[in-house]
Amino acid sequence: MPTQQRRMSSSQDVQGRRMSASAGSGPSVPTMQQRRMSVSSQSAQRRMSITSQSPDARRMSSTSRRMSIGAYTLPVPAPPLPEGLNNLLGKRFKPENIPDLSGRTALVTGGTSGIGFFDALELALANAKVIIISTTASWHGKQAEVDINAALQECKSTGSVVWHAVDMSNLKAVDAAAQKILNEEPRLDILICNAGIGQTPFAMTGDGLEKHFEVNNLAHYVLTLRLLPLMQRTAAFAPPGTVRIVMQSSELHRMAPSDTKFEFKEEVNSITDETLLYARTKLGLIYLTRELAQRKLATYPPGTTPVLVMAVHPGSVDSEIQKNADNGPMAKLKKLLTRTTTKTDEEGAEVCLWAATCTDINADNWKEYQGNYFSEAYGRPGGESNLAKDEQIADNFWELCAACVKEKLGEELR
């Protein structure tokens, strides 16, 4: 039997056993698992044609790339918008614009679904080694790893993906994962801080912190500061301006409470509307970006380019976390207003990929990007809210993160 047929047969057999086991005992298989099943025969046939294409042809259009990873089946994209409206909604950075990333290593948090999945996929298609860490069920995370690596093999990419389960709501778990990567990886060129709790109701973590704040902000504070020395060592020999950190913020940061101060833990632990909880952490990521640039990356050897850090807005994305974001009145209003302009997850990944890889950002102009927030690819800095520009609150945010981390980890990390 040919290799491809054996793979298809094996995939179907495995899936049949999974579904039989699920039907026989225990809870039913979640809908997302059914959507991320082992590669179907139809999608496998689509992928078979990829191997015969030239390297340039294998950098396919977004629709073809989506079809090539049939285990991650999404709705067929809507017809393209008129050019004028498309321009109004923001500039585009297509995945085929990503340079060759051979020999480079990237880390994507929350890379098992949504925008993060396509961040990881596109970086790996460009031949990078990609590490994914996320808080997710074992079947879900492992299936993402299998799906992407299968697509990479069919596309003859030299990239790879490996997934690690990390509870992002447990700072000790995040710290342990970061230190493991720090000790095992010889380099880290790209860090995409994408994982996050969406617009979900207030909840506390086992660390005694509000979940949005701990997952969206504190976990990335710890991860970034632990991995920064490795990234700085990488920047010493990598092409200037190519070692970058990207924070996945949002234009929704404008809806953060106007009285946000980030002065005390009691403030972030206070119960409020889920959209406000989410928006406040997206504001926090803009502060984290600026403080990293000013506190950690402002000094560097003459003639060199430091690690670059930017915050971005992916656009109004019809992502998994947003599909669950209709419990509060503000979330419902936002969903109604953006229904006609939402992007797919794949399109939402473009801005992040631009910030992480665009060669137009280089040793000559990197200062224009360092520590700034961008609401679109090729956008102008300085468009964030006045609250996001407040230096005192940014300083409060950094100090609050440092205090919470010291309390939970028992050491100073700043």
Automatic annotation (TrEMBL):
- Keyword Nucleotide-binding among UniProt keywords: no
UniProt keywords, alphabetically: Oxidoreductase
Highest taxon of source = Eukaryota
**Pfam families xref list:** adh_short (PF00106)
Q: Which family does it belong to?
A: Belongs to the short-chain dehydrogenases/reductases (SDR) family.
Q: Which PANTHER family match?
A: NAD(P)-BINDING PROTEIN (PTHR24320:SF143), RETINOL DEHYDROGENASE (PTHR24320)
Quote the protein name from its UniProt record.
NAD(P)-binding protein
